[in-house]
Specification:
Number of helices: 19
Largest sheet: 6 strands, mixed
Enzyme class: lyase
CATH class of one domain: Alpha Beta
Bound molecules: the ligand N[C@@H](CCOP(=O)(O)O)C(=O)O
CATH topology of one domain: Rossmann fold
EC number: 4.2.3.1
Number of strands: 15
Pathway: Amino-acid biosynthesis; L-threonine biosynthesis; L-threonine from L-aspartate: step 5/5
CATH architecture of one domain: 3-Layer(aba) Sandwich
Radius of gyration: 20 Å
Shape: globular
Helix content: 40-55%
InterPro entries: Ser/Thr_deHydtase_PyrdxlP-BS, Thr_synth_N, Thr_synth_N_sf, Thr_synthase-like, Threonine_Synthase, TrpB-like_PALP, TrpB-like_PALP_sf
Strand content: 15-25%
Cofactor: pyridoxal 5'-phosphate
Length: 467
Amino acid sequence: MEYVSTRGSAPALDFEGATLAGLASDGGLYVPREWPRFTEAEIAGLAGLPYAELAARIMQPFVGDSLTPERLRELTAKAYARFAHKAVTPLKQLDEQQWLLELFHGPTLAFKDVALQLLGLLFEEFLSRGGDPLTIVGATSGDTGSAAIDAVAGRARVDIFMLHPKGRVSDVQRRQMTTVLSPNVHNIAIEGSSFDDAQAIVKRMFGDTAMTGRFAIGAVNSINWARLMAQVVYYFAAALQLGAPHRKVAFAVPTGNFGDVFAGYVAAQMGLPIERLIVATNVNDILHRALSTGDYSAGTVTPTAAPSMDIQVSSNFERLLFDVGGRDGKALAAQMTGFEATRAMQLTNAQREGAARLFTSARADPDQMAQAIRWAFDASGELLDPHTAIGLHAARTAGIDPAVPVVTLATAHPAKFRDAVERATGHRPILPARLGDLFEREERLVDLPGDYDAIAAYVAAHAVPRG
Ligand SMILES: N[C@@H](CCOP(=O)(O)O)C(=O)O
């Protein structure tokens, strides 16, 4: 399997190369040259497999020759052994039509663990073959940070520098990152910034030849293809339980960087019968505006009770625009460069029509989010986190045929956002025992200004150079 850049001029890479590179050298994102496709009979044959085995079968075509099927199976078994639920991503019924896919049973209580537990092992595997030590630079609005840190803390030949916007993640999210004291973990709180600022700094570092010449910069954000590949699996897992390939299923996905919902798009390209992908945003609604009107223009980021979605520049949207816009890398490079200069862009007709074939979108304000938390609690006794509640609001208002099951991706454990859940329901979710002493642990982080040079200098002073 070969990977090509959405901006058309970076060299094509194999899976190992794309995983270690993260972002393409032309600023684009890597995507498979073509989508592998399963027949209906092949999809039916996946029903009932244990999650780790299902994961290995679905990912093998993407991995190609970079790992043998046996080695991939060993890695998926190891990655998913750390989940607190035997099903890894259990499915729960809320009412006749609505379902929840619980993606928060990993070590850091968010869907990011599903991909990052595997990515940590992939880095270890590929780095053991030689090459330069990896300097991971990531940005987080709360969940990616802790999941990535958990996945690579203490591993040889990797350092991780995780940037978060100071004061804009929940206290649980911050402590999950800053209480990991391994010497290869470096937490940076950026003053006066949003996630978008942090993500822009990360992307700039990939294009900074002074940095990339000295350090092998790597990515753990969903700009890294391997993240999305691992997330494709749970769409299959849920749909197979609900009757696929003989029955269509719709998915509602709380969305910030568009990675999780793009994984659903990939599942559909592979042959999974998906009725609709419902993109759910909070008031930071660039994706809802883009999908409903074609206007992809970034406003300022409004802090909300669903901080992981407080994003206005959704990196993975570029992958969708590339695929539905005819895979014309040169044209997309010009379009994205224009967006980076003006922070505004109009989708082409081909992009709008291509997206509309599968995607619907909705936006939830804080009241609608709180109502969805209350509805789920009254309907089934489930406490939802604010992000999941935004997904559920979109699921219930999307007008999906009542015969089609709608699965909302439950992206985080409610205890990560205890205050918001308690405000909505009067019930305070309890942190699972494995995080029980989080508030007694020592924290380590540095505060830096939102200035590229200051952050690059910090990374350069603490990372291990090539060679
Ligand atoms: N929602 C994320 C933001 C980063 O997104 P990613 O999926 O590209 O890593 C977070 O919680 O950090």
